[in-house]
Design goal:
Elements: H1 10-14, E1 23-24, H2 27-36, E2 40-45, H3 50-60, H4 63-72, E3 74-79, H5 84-96, E4 105-109, E5 115-119, H6 124-140, H7 142-157, H8 160-163, H9 175-186, H10 205-218, H11 221-236, E6 250-251, E7 259-260, E8 263-264, H12 265-282, H13 285-302, E9 312-313, E10 316-317, E11 320-321, E12 327-328, H14 329-336, H15 340-347, E13 359-360, H16 368-375, H17 382-397, E14 405-406, E15 409-410, H18 411-428, H19 431-447, E16 449-450, E17 453-459, E18 462-466, H20 469-486, H21 489-506, E19 507-508, E20 513-514, H22 539-554, H23 557-569, H24 571-576, H25 582-592, E21 596-601, H26 605-613, E22 620-625, E23 645-650, E24 653-654, H27 661-668
Parallel strand pairs: 1-3, 2-3, 21-22
Antiparallel strand pairs: 2-4, 4-5, 6-7, 8-9, 9-14, 10-11, 12-13, 15-17, 16-17, 17-18, 19-20, 21-23, 23-24
Length: 669
């Protein structure tokens, strides 16, 4: 065993028995590199990463490869989910070298941690040749490497604000600008299969978040058509686990057919939010089914006994990608019995397989009932038969060897999940979902918070690693969501405390954005700011949203002004290439029209809130109390003639109170 055996990260522990003399990232390895004047090899991945497993199997488990690595390099393994700061810095360096990023990420550093070369996956023969070439260059051409490394570092420390010319503007927020953003985004729509016009296909929840808000403002039918097409295909395609629930990370093709089979908590968290909002808007029962199924999967497979949610399920089982999720025809015949004939027509099951090596993967492009009608297999009891068949497969799958579980608990991803659960509760009114959201909030508050500060990771009863901006941003958003489904002021107070800490310890007043790392965190060769939205929204865009919401909730103009300053600096990119800043664009939508402040006061406040939340009203905040409150929105608000009252307000100016949700919705129209 090597030093990784003392770590808690599942990804690092996967490499604990490698013959490579791995170190975790830390002073011991970095000081050894300086003392011995050896180059550093930093290899970064995550536990559910398929090609990380392949490279480990082909190279890191092989004695002859490990011998070369150990002789020439100080070798460091990094879990990118545990140390997103290290990953961001060296991924940035790889891209500066002109290489497309990905994992495993293997970067070669000088002893002072400056990067001079990097690659992603390589087959063993190429890897060994590279190791020898890098060692030779380090010995024979050190000055050239040092010069290159200085250039890469110079590129890395260059401010994105300066690089992209982000300056504050006084331009008003307009519907015309939103139309311009939509037209730009539309250029990359896949209008046949949903999503964007590329493969692989990632769900990209923040794109749909923007489209939902854009549609709410403009009623542009093209936006709604793209939302429904995309969500239908994401719900029906092979990226969704028809048997067990939950979404895989992405589809390797442009059909949403074959996924990269790992299931990540952050994807499912965000898709819960999107499908919940879409259900509130469209009343599409498919969306409700996916919400309930995914919540059940989360509870059954991802919930820890301590109350937080695990990070991921691996793509591989028994060394084969997707084996847990795919089926051979003979296997399905045995499991389904008399149901096989119609089921095989529904899913195009064959001996040859609809994927590879004789395996079949479950995939639809239209609603199951519509597909059955088109195939001539529909009957009055189809829905029951269909569910029974899926239940049979779920039961059979329990005897399969399960994919590996990454059982670390991350504050950021759990924050995203709480937000997903709060939105799912609002759309469905299902009390068990609210209970799950509140319990997860309690877990973060009690297990991952200390002296008003967050920890990033939790494992084996212990929280560790100084939290990053993504943790604070996601947890603040989660607490704001919890307040708005419970009216418990504790969540609002906790969100405020975390927000103030973030401003004090992450904010760069000179540029008007937040650093990714805490001032109390480890100093790396570059201190980055995360501005661009990806599969997870940028932590800065999430903070801008939080500041706006909290500012409205607490009547804090300082928060609102800070949010507006951040958003205004992104205007140039919003209008130039919005697909990389769609969470910013969603906030822009809120600034185009006034945000409704919904205030509910009286003994039936929770019941009325629950009724109100069923409707799709994205540009709102909601506050309430059954008694009285010092919250600015609630001051001097009282029931009406003993009845619970609803106040619809804009910029703290309220219309006459009403006592029914119907009347309140009419005031919003």
């Amino acid at each position: 065993m090597n030093r990784l055996s003392q770590e808690t990260s599942p990804y690092l522990l996967q490499h604990a028995n490698n013959p490579v003399d791995w170190y975790p990232w830390g002073p011991l390895a970095l000081e050894k590199a300086k003392a011995e004047n050896k180059p550093i090899l930093v290899s970064i991945g995550y536990s559910a990463c398929h090609w990380c497993h392949v490279m480990e199997r082909e190279s890191f488990e092989q004695d002859h490869v490990a011998e070369i690595m150990n002789e020439y390099f100080i070798c460091i393994k990094v879990d990118r989910e545990e140390r997103p700061d290290v990953d961001a810095v060296y991924m940035d360096s790889l891209q500066a070298m002109g290489t497309r990023g990905g994992w495993p990420l293997n970067v070669f550093l000088l002893p002072d941690t400056k990067p001079f070369y990097g690659v992603t996956y390589l087959p063993p023969q190429n890897w060994v040749q590279l190791l020898k070439s890098v060692n030779n260059a380090f010995i024979s051409h050190y000055e050239d490497l040092a010069k290159s490394a200085d250039g890469f570092v110079e590129n890395m420390v260059q401010s994105d604000i300066k690089k992209y010319g982000l300056t504050q503007t006084s331009t008003p927020y307009t519907v015309e600008a939103l139309d311009e953003m939509f037209e730009k985004l539309k250029q990359n729509f896949d209008t046949l299969k949903g999503g964007m016009d590329r493969a692989p296909k990632f769900p990209m929840p923040s794109i749909y978040k923007f489209l939902l808000r854009y549609f709410d403002i403009t009623q542009n039918p093209e936006a709604l058509a793209q939302i429904e097409l995309s969500l239908n295909r994401i719900a029906l395609g092979g990226i969704y686990d028809h048997v067990g629930g939950g979404w895989a990370r992405y589809s390797v093709d442009d059909e949403w057919f074959i996924p990269h089979f790992e299931k990540m908590l952050y994807d499912n968290a965000q898709l819960l939010s999107i499908f919940s909002e879409a259900f509130a808007l469209t009343d599409n029962t498919l969306y409700a089914e996916r919400i309930y199924q995914t919540v059940a999967w989360l509870k059954n497979e991802m919930l820890s006994p301590d109350g937080g949610f695990y990070s991921a399920l691996d793509a591989d089982s028994e060394g084969v990608e997707g084996k847990f999720y795919i089926w051979q025809k003979n296997e399905l015949v045995q499991i389904l019995g008399e149901d096989f004939n119609w089921f095989s027509k529904l899913y195009n099951i064959s001996q040859h397989g609809n994927w590879e090596h004789g395996f079949n993967h479950l995939h639809l492009t239209n609603f199951a009932s519509e597909t059955a009608k088109a195939a001539g297999i529909y009957s009055e009891d189809f829905e029951n038969k269909y569910q029974n068949a899926l239940d049979k497969l779920a039961a059979a799958r329990t005897s399969k060897i399960r994919p590996g579980l990454d059982d670390k608990i991350l504050a950021s991803w759990n924050g995203l999940l709480i937000k997903g659960l709060t939105t799912a509760y609002q759309a469905t009114g299902e009390e068990s979902i609210r209970e799950m959201a509140v319990k997860t909030g309690r877990f973060i508050l009690e297990r991952m918070t200390e002296n008003g500060k967050l920890w990033h990771s939790y494992k084996n009863g212990k929280a560790s690693i100084t939290a990053f901006l993504e943790d604070y941003a996601a947890v603040i958003e989660a607490y704001l969501g919890l307040y708005q489904i419970t009216f418990d002021p504790e969540w609002l107070a906790e969100a405020t405390n975390l927000c103030d800490y973030t401003i004090a310890n992450f904010y760069d007043a000179s540029e008007g954005f937040f650093f990714f790392t805490d001032t109390e965190g480890e100093t790396l060769i570059a201190r980055k700011k995360e501005l661009f939205d990806n599969v997870i929204p940028a932590s800065n865009s999430m903070m801008a949203q939080n500041l706006y919401t909290l500012g409205k909730m607490l009547d804090r103009t300082d928060y609102q002004e800070l949010s507006d300053q951040m958003l205004s600096k992104m205007t140039k990119i919003l209008l130039a290439d919005v697909q990389w800043v769609t969470n910013w664009a969603a906030l822009y939508c809120q600034r185009v029209t006034p945000t409704a402040e919904i205030v509910i006061v009286g003994e039936n406040a929770d019941e009325i809130r629950k009724d109100f939340d069923r409707f799709f009203v994205p540009n709102k905040i909601i506050a309430g109390t059954t008694t009285q409150s010092s919250l600015p929105l609630l001051e001097n608000r009282t029931p009406v003639n003993g009845q619970t009252a609803i106040y619809v307000c804009y910029d703290k100016t309220c219309q006459l109170p009403v006592t029914s949700v119907k009347e309140a919705l009419e005031q919003l129209a």
